[in-house]
Amino acid sequence: AEELRGFLDTAVALAKEVGPAFKDGFWRKGQFASADDFAAEGKQGNIADCVTAVDCHIEKVLFSRLREIYPHHKFVGEETTAECGQVSITNDPTWIVDPVDGTNNFVHHFHFTGVSISLAINKEPVVGVIYLPILDELYTGVRGQGSFLNGQRLPLFNPPTLTTPTSLSQCMLVSEHGSSHDETLQSRMRSLTRLLLAKEHGGAGLESLRFAGAATSDMSLVAKGIAEIHWEIGLHAWDIAAASVIVTESGGAVFDGAGWWGLDMAEGEREPRPLNIWNRSIVSVRYIPDLPGQPGSGRELQRQLAKELLTHVEDIPCTPDGLH
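-> structure tokens emitted (324 positions)
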């Protein structure tokens, strides 16, 4: 536990170190004052999935510092992986970094954007830091030690303010439409429409839907207890590694997000599977208080809500992030 706390302290210090460069890039000041210095470009020609000079600068700084401190650790970052392709994942301590999660938000001055730093051991995230510099929000989590926002334990609310939803009709969902504007977008829209449709029309009767534009921000809303549930397919390990620690340590739950709609599955097979951060899909559910006189019911309701969601959404096959 003490070793994990040391890793967390390192991640927090580095997130704060790159904060000024992040803010300069967001406001186009200082070293990123000119368009040439900022230079937003689309990845593989997709301007909806863009990278800036800020992404590359921050990732370079973070990995340089981490390699100095932990020379025998492994490293996975969004921009280096985008350049080099699929990486080999081992059980060794592995730092997983997204230098600017929500780059499209960043480019458009939309404040839900930040730095994500996680450490995985045996391929499982055990330390998570999300820093949203524009909002001045620092989320931290260590396996077995809870998660916090600016030092305040998560979730932010307690019963009865924090309710016990028993169906998606009582839930706010946070999700994303993704950066691919092709047939996968059509699949996402069908799934989201199915969730929003009233039950009498064959839907889940979801209460409301929100897009924040970044998985880390979406999942921070779940950890805080604001949104009940998050679902996304096609995202990457660096989008969710840190956030998965912060959600689970807030009392939330995370599951595989590959949907079951249209699949021929026996009822016994329709059970949410554990999350594998490398497989590019996720459902996360906030902490749910137990029903009166029913210890353990909150955990069961988390599974039920995930199951209800997965029943209504389609799978989108994605190439895993790493060879493992």
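Confidence is low (pLDDT under 50) at residues 43-50.
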